[in-house]
Specification:
Blueprint (H helix, E strand, L loop, with lengths): L5 E7 L3 H12 L5 E5 L15 E2 L6 H15 L11 E2 L3 E5 L2 H15 L5 E3 L1 H7 L10 E5 L3 E3 L1 H14 L3 E4 L3 E7 L2 E7 L3 E9 L5 H6 L9 E10 L12 E4 L4 E6 L2 E5 L4 E2 L9 H14 L10 E9 L6 E4 L6 E5 L9 H14 L7 H4 L7
Parallel strand pairs: 1-2, 1-12, 2-9, 5-14, 12-20
Antiparallel strand pairs: 3-8, 4-8, 5-7, 6-7, 10-11, 11-12, 13-16, 13-17, 13-18, 14-15, 15-16, 19-20
Helix pairs in contact: 1-5, 1-8, 2-8
Length: 376
């Protein structure tokens, strides 16, 4: 076993955020990288439990910008990056009502100017596409025909495969227990297996990001994990759903989509929780059924095939948290991706690499996502 104890970069967490950063750092020639993952395999929590779709629509401007940038990579990754396509263009249908519908229509010109393929559907056109919907529940819909399902396993392991080829080390089942500091600067970490020095420590610990920073003392950065629940069930007998897009009702908090031979659905719950190995709450599962009954009664399942939950971590303003800590130098945040971590990973990983190596990026206004905004 390699006994090396000093690295240029230490990344805490090997979900999609940590893996993407390792890839983009390696692409810039940084080979002295250690990724520490407390679980027995990468992507165990949020990354492995996500619906994993590209949706080039978001009411948070900075997240929308990152989705558009991430989508470019997913559609046209570098030659030999992945062994199979990363994106299945199955489509995304977003229904809205009232003020949200007005806001969505105002966003369309800028979305198209950014290169997104967007169609506006009226009630009749939407129902003709998804016949289980009722016009009473929405005023119109946004269709993103070029968006759809991401092969998250292929994306995660492609990031890691290329990073490891360039020298990145991944150590699983190794938990960070202390952050080493000296004169206001982060100097490394102490784990369940040893002590490591590093010029940069990157906090890509997902729902545990706040806990990790807390090992070094108080921080103005605020993050809260939230639980998201998903169920799967058989499609109604005689109903063909395999070619449906993912359907989201933003005004009534429900989405459903084809899943294997049936359907998956979520009430889009965001209940604040402590970082944990998330499990579905039975009350939320029942709420999912009730919401289906209210909005799409023809889809109400006789039984549930499977249910699970994952964690989505947000800052109070919903924007991501990417940049050097405002108090502890050498400690870098790559956190707060909410539910957009997979689809934005290529953009956020590149931005983080540029901020670490160059101190700036041209891809986004770094102040909008900087942790320094919490110190103002």
């Amino acid at each position: 076993m390699d006994k090396k104890s000093d690295f240029e970069m230490i990344i805490i967490g090997c979900g999609i955020a940590g893996a993407s950063l390792a890839y983009f750092l390696a692409e810039r020639g940084i080979t002295d990288i250690l990724i520490l993952e407390r679980e027995e395999q990468p992507g165990y929590h949020s990354t492995g439990r996500s619906a994993a779709v590209l949706v080039e629509f978001d009411l948070v401007p900075s997240t929308l910008q990152l989705k558009l940038l991430g989508g470019q990579f997913l559609r046209n990754p570098p030659t030999d990056f992945s062994e199979t396509p990363l994106l299945q263009r199955s489509g995304i249908l977003i229904m809205l009502q009232g003020a949200l519908w007005k806001q969505a229509r105002q966003m369309i010109p800028s979305l198209r100017q950014s290169g997104a393929i967007v169609e506006i559907l009226n009630q009749e056109e939407t129902v003709s596409m998804i016949p289980v919907l009722s016009p009473a529940n929405f005023d119109g819909a946004v269709l993103l025909p070029e968006d759809g399902h991401i092969d998250v396993n292929e994306l995660l392991w492609s990031y890691l495969r290329h990073a490891k080829r360039r020298g990145t080390q991944l150590r699983c089942e190794e938990e960070v227990r202390e952050i080493k500091t000296d004169q206001g600067r982060c100097r490394g970490v102490i784990t369940s297996r040893g002590e490591y020095g590093s010029r940069w420590v990157i906090n890509a610990a997902g729902a545990w990001a706040g806990k990790i920073r807390g090992l070094a003392g108080p921080s103005p950065v605020q993050l809260t994990p939230h639980r998201r629940t998903i169920i799967t069930f058989a499609a109604p007998e005689g109903m063909s759903v395999s070619k449906w897009p993912l359907v989201t009702d933003l005004s009534h908090d429900l989405y459903f989509a084809p899943e294997s031979a049936g359907l998956m659905a979520s009430p889009m719950d965001e209940d604040p929780v402590e970082p944990c190995d998330a499990r579905p709450d039975e009350l939320v599962v029942a709420q999912t059924i009730e919401r289906l009954k209210e909005l799409t009664p023809r889809l109400v399942p006789e039984s549930i095939s499977h249910k699970w939950a994952g964690l989505r971590t947000f800052a109070p303003d919903q924007a991501m948290v990417v940049g050097e800590d405002p108090v502890l130098k050498g400690f870098f945040w790559l956190s707060g991706q909410g539910g957009a971590g997979i689809e934005t990973s290529a953009a956020v990983g590149q931005i983080a690499a540029e901020l670490i190596l160059d101190g700036r990026t041209k891809l986004i206004d770094a102040q909008v996502i900087s942790p320094a905004r919490f110190a103002v």
